[in-house]
Amino acid sequence: xxxxxNDTATNEPLLEISDLEITFATTxxxxxxxxxxxxxxxxxxxxxxxxxxxxxxxxxxxxxxxxLPENGKVTGGSIRFGGKDITSVPTREILALRGNEIGLVPQxxxxxxxxxxxxxxxxxxxxxxxxxxxxxKARSRAVELLEEAGLPDASRRANQYPHEFSGGMKQRALIxxxxxxxxxxxxxxxxxxxxxxxxxxQILDHxxxxxxxxxxxxxxxxxxxxxxxxxxxxxxxxxKGQIVESGPAIDLLQNPQHPYTQRLISAAPSxxxxxxxxxxxxxxxxxxxxxxxxxxxxxxxxxxPEFGDAEANLDAVIQVQELTKEFPIRGAVxxxxxxxxxxxxxxxxxxxxxxxxxxxxxxxxxxxxxxMVLKLLQPTSGRVLFEGKDVTTYRGKxxxxxxxxxxxxxxxxxxxxxxxxxIYSTIEEPLRLxxxxxxxxxxxxxxxxxxxxxxPAEMMRRYPNELSGGQRQRIAIARALALxxxxxxxxxxxxxxxxxxxxxxxxxxxxxxGELGLSYLFITHDLAVVRQIAxxxxxxxxxKVVEQGTTDEVFHSPQQDYTKRLLAAxxxxxxxxxxxxxxxxxxxxxxxxxxxxxxxxxxxxxxxVDPFSRAERA
Amino acid sequence: MRSxxxxxxxxxxxxxxxxxxxxxxxxxxxxxxxxxxAPRSMWSEAWHSLIRNPVFLISAALIVVIxxxxxxxxxxxxxxxxxxxxxxxxxPPSAEHPFGTTRLGYDVLARVLYGTRTSVMVGFFTMLLxxxxxxxVGALAGYVGGIFDAVLSRITDIFFxxxxxxxxxxxxxxxxxxxxxxxxxxxxxFGWTNIARIMxxxxxSVKNEDFVTASTALGANPVTNLVKHVVPNAIAPVIVTAxxxxxxxxxxxxxxxFLGLGLPSSSVSWGGDISDARPALRTQxxxxxxxxxxxxxxxxxxxxxxxxxxxALDPKARKR
Amino acid sequence: MIWYIGRRLLQMIPVFLGATLxxxxxxxxxxxxxxxxxxxxxxxxxxxxxxxxAQYNLDEPVLMQWLIYLGNLFQGDFGIGFxxxxxxxxxxxAFPVTFRLAIIAIVIETIFGVIxxxxxxxxxGTLIDTTLxxxxxxxxxxxxxxxxxxxxxxxxxxxxxxxxxxxxxxxxQNLLVPGAVLGAVSFAYVLRLTRTSIAEVAxxxxxxxxxxxxxxxxxxxxxxxxxxxxxxxxxxxxADLGALMGGAIVTEGIxxxxxxxxxxxxxxxxxxxxxxxSLVTLLVIIFLIANLTVDLLxxxxxxxxxxxx
Lengths: 618, 320, 309
Fold this sequence. Notes:
Helix content of chain C: over 70%
CATH class of chain B: Mainly Alpha
Distance between the termini of chain B: 46 Å
Radius of gyration of chain B: 29 Å
Strand content of chain C: under 5%
Low-confidence stretches of chain C: none
Oligomer: heterotrimer
Number of helices of chain B: 13
């Protein structure tokens, strides 16, 4: 903590960017990605640039060490580092700065290590390139650096290849690499956005201590305002290539001046969130849901509950009982496969007109549950009851009928729509598949659905590649609603979206629930989102439900250590803001290491998302 | 463990709080819909970038000319390509014989023009046949997976292990009355494997996309999914390869004819003419030059077309 | 790694059996009279017919014939050629020549193809890239036999710096020009493949990270771009060995090299089916071995495969 004081105690900024302008050459002509940006970083301090995707935050950071893609150029302004203007010095001089003056911790740990070289070798390289050490000395130093970055069993790990590392371990290796040559400035570009919250917290904590001890200034690039406020002393907010506001973290958060900053703070789920309330009150929503059910019941052929389901809760639209899914994973020899239990005796209910959320980290089995509820995956054992009837054995017409009433919305807005289909054919597809209406009535329905998701009807003739992520997700919602379903399963439906768009889509989902009496199963890794949308919450860890209850119960009096840890890891949760409640949970102590077995490395392809599952489905 | 963010460790002179003026940074609606451009599908985007690509324009123009010659070779010459008069052998270019005559007295221009038809026919129909076999095998292997995939993949490997020319040679050697259709059949049977491999890979990557899963969840059956979602999205790399393959088949046919194993001398083929021109290379190099040029230009056109289509269909290449 | 190799070997077995069966069926069974098929167009005596009948076990069912043929093959017995000499002996004489030719072709295509491809890939979009790309297109479009004629005519006949006809038992030096002609088309493919691969890897995230570490441009290229992008190229070159030996039929015909290709060409013209089957089978085996070697090389080069179960 005191490291900064023994630095040269001048008031000169280490990095000073003035009027920076960056232009990209594209086929559609030059695009200015950054305009008139001013910011400075003083020795030893942490400055965060916050913005949505496309705001120019990463571009600004990359331009410092001249790491822009080939078609990007600094077209105006200046970058001063250590008092020297480096905007247009020869590449040779930039080369001298890279590594030992300016370090980089890049965004995606999966793609930033060279898969062909051992991790130790890649760190050694950072040492030799900067003349820090050579030969055997560099090797032992590389191990020290990995240890310093919090990697357990570093000397063995240094001899392994990146694919043997989990995401968190790779990120630690990248931190070791970024700090290897002891730079004065570390650029950390979304260093943890690909990781689970608890791992993210450990790694950021470690990075904090490390940079504080070494007196390294950090330029942190992030989309997460809560995280930025928690980790940095000074915040810079970027919007569409410009810096709209900058100032001391707490001051900026409590007194946002620019309307964009205000908007961002009010939308950030981690900062200020409580259950979204639509125009309709919760009780009315549920009542409405039952009314909505009536016509379906009278017209339908609903029989009395089957034998053995007598105790079934009729208020529950979906009941999941002791659901279990095992995947065979290849063992040491090909003919011996070991069962891997992805979902382990999971039971819960979704009450009509309410939202149940399943929250968990990667590998918790939450998406596998969603797939089984959607009948995209056959459970190993256990049952899924829809309106009291076991649907696990449905096939043919029964299954098709079920598909009408339970609809999915998936995570990746870029993968969820067929790029070959116009928006009209996309939304019309379910109607066509189920032979509903004629061409004219279908078009009227598509118009109506577009209106429901607040998109103009002219959108019909467009194609997915012309739409933003948020718009695509709204189209996916419209498609899911085309068959007037009763249940919608949202599998990480808003996770890939920027905060403002995310807030907008959550708002939309919530309003639609009120309007149509929908029941949601909401799968997410983001606890902050859960608090905004869910009535009931299940916390899953390693295939098991570790805690479930009303959302308020889970957030205010978590019973399990794991839940407490998850809550404590929400970045910025403890920052007091006017008009919002804070989450103040003491995290139980935890060993500072992520799983020694790589859980998100190779097992990702061998485990739950195995081709087996696809084969079963087909 | 967690450091207190409020601990000052910077030497920042003053806690400046700067706000940009709203005039300079106007706030826009969140996720506004861009209605300024006309709707464009991926294919029409590809088309738009294609017609701006000089490589495409050149190759397309050449292919139009080649197809025209192949369709109406008689419009450009009044000479019969199969009429040889030994009295007018080895003539230099003249008004009657613009490219001269061969050592047997054939009109070179007529041979080159009529040879276009043979090459284009073999290239085009072999491409159709090979794409059909390879496309179906690859799509089924990739989509169904499992044992089915293993069997189909091994069958593909078997045909892949027999090089196109060798396989064609062995069969051509066995057939007494070779004609264009048999050559097409032979080349098609040994030339479909790269299409199958590409189709399989492409189908496997597409079938795991969310929109296919979404369609299943909406109630679509596997066959509908394959035909309506998977194949249309997987076909682009196959089109590219098929275009390039067309050139490869033309070369293969010429090679067969060159080896004397292709079409009988009654049908005009560039490969055969090149072979025939060889003994006179010293005295009449142009006899070799004309059919070789025709062959090279035809093949080049299709390869260039393939390249241009690849660039147009690859969104990564288009962004730049 | 062991299981990876094991799986590859297991997969090779059906492919080997299938490919040899197809070749066998094509050559012997496609026409009505197997004796006529074996003998080709030549009129043959009853004595020879009986001998052939015995040699190819024609009284057995076709599948059995093929199995016996395979069995003999593994004992190095390819049968007797029309000229009365064992086919094996003739192959033994011809094989080293063609192998040498293929090696020359591979060396040439690798050196020139990779160097040109690396330059084009690193300078994508520049004049030199466009030029190299055009050269590669030309080489692919002009058939090998035309390139062969031209090389023979210009270098051999007009300039006299290379032999026009190579003939029997040639030196490495004499095989240089035919080898270059044989490798020409593959050179163009290597160039294009290397170019694409290099350009792709050059924009990878880990390359930027390596640059950010402070590595020089040269260091980044040699340690992080080259190795990663050459894996598909190695795959291609390895598999190309089999294809080149097959392609030698054209090149050897032009330069009169007495290798496998000439043997095959002669056998085809004479309708010597046993020889054709033997040679094509041999080429298929070489092709399969080359592919297996590539798979192993792949595992050596890429740690992700090396450690896969």
